[in-house]
């Protein structure tokens, strides 16, 4: 299993200093949630780990390998983003297998992985449908499935449930937690929703203004918030 180690990370968008000297160590197999208000830099931090946007300074290790200069496709990560655009002309099966095919994964291996993930997400019945024939929740499962078939060591999620209604959000949350247990992978998950954070995470990094204000278990955050901001954000009685 691979942990994530971030050291002295700085990132600006134009004149805006978005990430301010971030240090964060995510233990292998952890489910870490980045929690904070809109605009505090959560997505920027996730993009930096993914390698989608160059950083200004600092370093990122995944599984004890320095990936700071490594291409996103070679970092051993899989991503699920807020806007989960599926390929509209492809069936669910093709949506799941396409990325693996492009990478040259053997056909039998692709079939094994698609069957496994479809079973995990209970979307076996949907494999021959096109996205237009799916509900929002089903589409979101397929988007998660598309990441899972990559069998990555590290999964990155950016507000993957924000387009779902309350009931589906709760259901998918339970499912993600179960999947985490089943996969034994490291998860880094962005949300601005404290309930989502407190129920999903093994550890939560509370962010404010481009910095990590506290990194602790949900219980610790609630019982011993380091700052008033953390107390206010996680709703503890401090
Ligand atoms: P969060 O995900 O916590 O809501 P973001 O990481 O998306 O926050 O954004 C942090 C700050 O950086 C915000 O002020 C946002 O407007 C700014 N920002 C993000 N991406 C860009 C970009 N591509 N160009 C310019 N500013 C950006
Ligand atoms: Mg964001």
UniProtKB/TrEMBL annotation:
The keyword ATP-binding applies. It comes from the Bacteria. One of its GO terms (molecular function) is ATP binding. Keywords: ATP-binding, Nucleotide-binding, Transport. Residues 4-234 form the ABC transporter domain. Belongs to the ABC transporter superfamily. This is ABC transporter ATP-binding protein. It comes from Roseomonas elaeocarpi.
């Amino acid at each position: 299993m691979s942990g994530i180690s971030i050291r002295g990370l700085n990132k600006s968008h134009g004149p805006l200093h978005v990430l301010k000297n971030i240090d964060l160590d995510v233990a292998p197999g952890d489910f870490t949630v980045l929690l904070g208000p809109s605009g505090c830099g959560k997505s920027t931090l996730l993009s930096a780990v993914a390698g989608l946007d160059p950083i200004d300074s600092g370093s990122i290790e995944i599984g004890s390998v320095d990936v700071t200069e490594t291409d996103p496709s070679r970092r051993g990560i899989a991503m699920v983003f807020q806007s989960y655009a599926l390929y509209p002309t492809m069936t669910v099966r093709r949506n799941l297998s396409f990325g693996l095919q492009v990478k040259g994964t053997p056909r039998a291996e692709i079939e094994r992985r698609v069957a496994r993930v479809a079973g995990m997400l209970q979307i076996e019945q949907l494999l021959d449908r096109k996205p237009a024939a799916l509900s929002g929740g089903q589409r979101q499962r397929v988007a998660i499935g598309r990441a899972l078939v990559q069998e990555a060591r590290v999964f990155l999620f950016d507000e993957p449930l924000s387009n779902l209604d309350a009931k589906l959000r709760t259901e998918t949350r339970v499912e993600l937690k179960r999947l985490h247990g089943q996969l034994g992978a490291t998860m880094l998950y962005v949300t601005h929703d404290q309930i989502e954070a407190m129920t999903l995470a093994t550890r939560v990094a509370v962010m404010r203004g481009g910095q990590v204000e506290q990194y602790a278990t949900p219980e610790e955050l609630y019982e011993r918030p380091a700052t008033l901001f953390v107390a206010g954000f996680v709703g503890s009685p401090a």
